[in-house]
Design brief:
With 274 residues, the protein is mostly helical. 62% of the residues lie in helices and 0% in strands. The structure holds protoporphyrin IX containing FE.
């Protein structure tokens, strides 16, 4: 016997009211997949990228708010937001399992239609990196043809990162640090003072519980980010081998270099000291 949801009280007349699709603007979202090659597998390729961009949008929303909360000593909400960002990153790590069902011959069919477009030009990804402290002015260049986007990205590039705000918090809690005022657009350089401060925190968690929790949230986040980078390069090698990327780099050789990026260096180093 089939169920009639209306008898269960489900609303079924939306003539004059907002429904699910209206609220989520689904027509626009679901009308944004334009297959250029016409190949069956291109749908996977497009949706994989688009969903990653949507998750990155949420990640940025949370990261900006977490940075703001740390700057105003509002740590409980910051922890909650950072935990969410790590879970999003893990979600993105798992999503490589779907893309890895794409085989080399399947990718080759759509490759001619991609032109020079590449995730390398993802401005949201660049903003995530800037917010997490990986500052590299060269990464602004692919966006120079879009001045409004460059202004937006430059703001993230020139602002303190999440880690910069964490270090300013350490200073407000009494640690003497040499990294609290600097040109925020410069890449972050390892500091022994910062290492010593984190060492104090890790040696006495009960005394510095909030800072200890913050440090672990940051490590969680970088751990998940490292896994994302690793799964990306492995998936890429599986699909295109050592061919050049559509964005023009050496491909796997470039992505392997990115595995060496360290976002929160003292938090990793401190583990050897303990
Ligand atoms: C078949 C699938 C994919 C291949 C073959 C691929 C390949 C590559 C290659 C070769 C690069 C280096 C730049 C270049 O020369 O193009 C790159 C960069 C990048 N890709 Fe992918 N990718 C794939 C899927 C994805 C997906 C699903 C995302 C999610 C958004 C993504 C995001 C990125 C990002 C953000 C970069 C820049 C990394 C950095 O500069 O550190 N890629 N990709």
């Amino acid at each position: 016997m089939s169920t009639d949801p209306a008898k269960e009280g489900a609303k079924t007349d939306f003539t004059d009211q907002m429904d699910y699709g209206d609220y989520l603007d689904l027509e626009r979202v679901l009308d944004a997949q334009h297959l250029r090659s016409g190949d069956h597998n291109e749908m996977l390729f497009i949706i994989q990228h688009q969903t990653s961009e949507l998750w990155m949008k949420l990640m940025l929303h949370e990261l900006r708010a977490a940075r703001g909360a740390i700057a105003t000593d509002d740590l409980s909400p910051a922890f909650k937001m950072l935990a969410r960002v790590s879970r999003i990153m893990e979600q993105l790590v798992h999503s490589w399992d779907v893309l890895s069902t794409l085989t080399p011959p399947e990718y080759s069919k759509m490759r001619p239609y991609l032109g020079s477009s590449s995730g390398f030009q993802s401005w949201q990804y660049r903003e995530v990196e800037f917010l997490l402290g990986n500052k590299n002015a060269a990464m602004l260049k692919p966006h120079a043809h879009r001045p409004e986007l460059t202004v937006y990205l430059k703001d993230a590039f020139e602002s303190p990162s999440l880690y910069d705000e964490a270090l300013r918090l350490l200073a407000r809690r009494g640690f003497v640090l040499d990294r609290c005022e600097r040109d925020w657009s410069e890449p972050y350089a390892f500091s022994e003072q910062v290492e010593a401060a984190w060492l104090c925190v890790y040696r006495d968690p009960d005394r510095y519980w909030a800072l200890y929790e913050l440090a672990e949230e940051l490590i969680d986040l970088e751990d998940a980010f490292r896994q994302w980078r690793f799964r990306h390069v492995t998936t890429v090698e599986r699909i295109i081998g050592f061919k050049r990327g559509t964005g023009g780099t050496g491909g796997v050789s470039y992505l392997r270099k990115m595995l060496d990026v360290v976002l929160f260096p003292e938090l990793w180093k401190v583990r050897t000291d303990l």
